Amino acid sequence: MIVKSQWIPLQLLADQALLVHLPGRHANRAAIEDDLARRRAGWRGEQALSYYLSFLRPERYRIFYDLRLTIQAHAFQIDALLLSPSLAAIIEVKNFTGTVYFESLFDQMIRVAGDRQETFPNPIVQVKRQRDMLNKWLSAHRLPELPIECLVTIANVSTMIKSASNSAGEWVCHAEHLESRLKKYEQRNHKRILGLSALQQLETALLENHTDPQPDVLKKFAVSSTDLIRGVRCPNCGTFEVERAYGTWVCKSCSKKSKDAHVPMILDYFLLKGSTMTNKQCREFLKISDHQLVTRLLRKTPIKIGGSGRGIGQYYMAPPHEYFDQQYQRFRQNRQKRIF
After folding, report:
1. Where are the alpha helices (DSSP H) in 102-195?
2. Which residue(s) pair with 81 in the sheet?
3. Domain-by-domain residue ranges, the chain?
4. Tens digits of per-residue pLDDT, 202-240?
5. 212, 261 in Cβ contact below 8 A?
6. pTM score, two decimals?
7. Regions of the chain where pLDDT drops below 70
8. CATH architecture, domain 230-333
């Protein structure tokens, strides 16, 4: 049973939004494109993981995707957390091609693809750290404790996995072998530990304490806010030559019309600028002069008003992660020309 759904990562969408609003010859564009490519590969790996998890018995496991918790001011994120009456399983997914070699002497992972060789932090160390952090989090919140297993899965079934010792095999497998690994964990922890009420208590605490990461790509890539291209972008040709006319958006470049071309631009603001937005900030970002028009457009979205009083004391709050995912899926299905 999926308790916390899998949605497109906000960090990936923030990279995409930054590229959309950045001039083509910007000095840092290549670095952003590289980061986006890595995040897209990671997202494909997460989707592959969800495919293999879909074969599990829904009544046996509670599944939490992209769970982010905080303990002692330190946040840790888990690709997938599985709960059963007998155990918790932390699943970390990696999506690599070629050959991955787990080198134990220096605790690193080496990926070889063609003539290229790259070194990465050892994901086994990463998943063990997540286990330790989760144990501390459960203890700090006085929640029921249970055995925690952890596993690194390689999403691409054609990727070759190598190690100088057999120890890596205890922690790493291809995603297609995930079900058999979980059966092994269940056999190792065969005693029923948690009842239904304890599982529900743990489930509620995990959901209530999850927080989405706040992207800060402008700082990360040293991009000034003044570098960003403002306005409403044409969903057909990708230019920012769009004007409002008779209740719709009309592109001066390709003449195509759109009722909701402003929606992805508003979401881009939250991805690039932060979790709150005033009417004035929205007008400046979309290059709209009409205060009332912005108010009417925002009323048609699930974006809520925060702050106190009326007018200057109010602001708009970023919508939930699910809404970003829904819009991503919708615009992709409509084949609108954004960078996915």
Report:
1. 123-140, 178-188
2. 64, 90
3. 2-209, 230-333
4. 999 999 999 999 999 999 999 999 999 999 999 999 999
5. no
6. 0.92
7. 309-312, 333-340
8. Orthogonal Bundle (1.10)
